[in-house]
Amino acid sequence: MTASRGSFNHRSVTRVARGVAVAAVLALSLAACAGSGDADRTGADGASASFGDASIQFSWIKNAEFMGEYLADENGYFTDAGFDTVDMIEGPASIEAAVISGNADMGIGNAISTGTIVANEGAPLKIIGATYQKNPFTILSLADKGNIATLDDLKGKTIGVQASNLSLWEAFLKVNNIEESSLTTLPVQYDPTALFTGEVDGWFSYLTNESIDAELNGLNPVNLPLADFGLPFVSETLTVTDDAIRNDREKLKALLVAEIRGWTDAINDPHAAAKLTVDTYGPTFDLSIEKETRQAEIQSSDLVVSSETLANGLFSISTALQEQSIDTLTATGLTITANQLFDLSLLAEVYAENPDLLAYGNQP
User: Fold this and answer.
1) Which member of 58, 74, 136, 258 lies 3.0 to 4.6 Å from 207 by CB, making a disulfide possible if both were Cys?
2) pLDDT tens across 187-235, in order?
3) H/E segment holding residue 188
4) Across 258-281, average pLDDT
């Protein structure tokens, strides 16, 4: 399989990167010295604004997960928004550490990882939007081995769970009132071969990674998505510092405008987005066009769009989904409020100033 996400342990949604507490102190010191960087800028559309250079930290390698960012770059939307360059920094990496330390203006991660750091470390971070309305974590099984399609199907099964994902797995069992003794949790690493060879019945994984590997290898994958069974939370979240929201507001809004335009193009032509990923932005990662195309299709039809985005635009996070994300964090043992984690005011301003961006589904 190619560039398997399971080869890296950064995908833990509850992992706190080493050095984050130190970085948070650094960020707070920098914030005290920060000036009001938007004083001479006039709008998020970039027409009369110049923001110089910007950077976005990816949590993962340059595969189709970030296809909207590639199209924002390829089609000149970052330039149109007022940026000289936008550096897209590949992972795997802790996006929270990169943003807090000032090494990136924005990071793309998930609500549980960021929420954990905010709750545990008091990190000065906010989520200002989310690409995925539905998180892609899943319990993957195969039709002829495990066949875990419902919660009842978990009984008596052996599930491979990575140490970094154990707290989320335990939260999943808790919210669904599943006794740990009713199944076997097997500590595993990140290579899902044990599932594909039948050594375990299920595997803690990603809809857009191992499940696609199984599909392309003719193994008939069966998914039990966490988002559909008690643990909904937003993912591919756009994370920035509190200081940037205060002092670089127009710059962040300009990034949002370019990102929305890039993702509009991506979901309207996922095949072209996948080809651009493989040929231009991710050629060093030995990506396959088949897998990237399937990921692009799944993202475009199932993860990025929802009734909320149809009503309020891409990256929107409804009040209900914010609270569901907080409930999931609570289930992992953390205490945090929606106001401590989310700030959707910039996105609201972007759509008020650029109402044409709302009609992402009507693009040619």
Assistant:
1) 136
2) 999 899 999 999 999 999 999 999 999 999 999 999 999 999 999 999 9
3) strand 184-188
4) 98
203 phi, psi to nearest 5 deg:
-145, 130
By the 8 A CB rule, do 133 and 308 touch?
Answer: yes
Give the whole-angstrom CA distance, residue 148 versus residue 195.
Answer: 12
Residue type, 252: L
Q: Which residue has the tokens 């962040």?
A: 252
Question: In the chain, what are the domains?
Answer: 5-134+233-362 (3.40.190.10), 137-228 (3.40.190.10)
Cα separation, 44 vs 247, whole angstroms: 14
How far apart CA 206 and CA 136 sit, in angstroms, is: 5
Task: Report the distance separating Cα 108 and Cα 53, nearest Å.
Answer: 18
* pLDDT score, position 165: 87
Q: Cα(97)–Cα(107) distance, rounded to whole angstroms?
A: 9
DSSP 302: I
User: For residues 223 and 141, what is the distance between their CA atoms, to the nearest angstrom?
Assistant: 6
Give residue 362's pLDDT.
61
The token pair that represents 193 in the structure block: 């071969």
What are the residues facing 158 on neighbouring strands? 184
Can you give the pTM of this predicted structure? 0.86
Give the residue from 66, 59, 62, 54 showing the smallest Cα distance to 17: 59
**Residue of 119, 111, 105 lying closest to 259 (CA atoms):** 105
Instruction: Judge whether residue 2 has pLDDT over 60.
Output: no
- Using pLDDT thresholds of 50, 70 and 90, give the confidence band for residue 49: confident
User: Distance (Å, rounded) from C-alpha 132 to C-alpha 315?
Assistant: 8
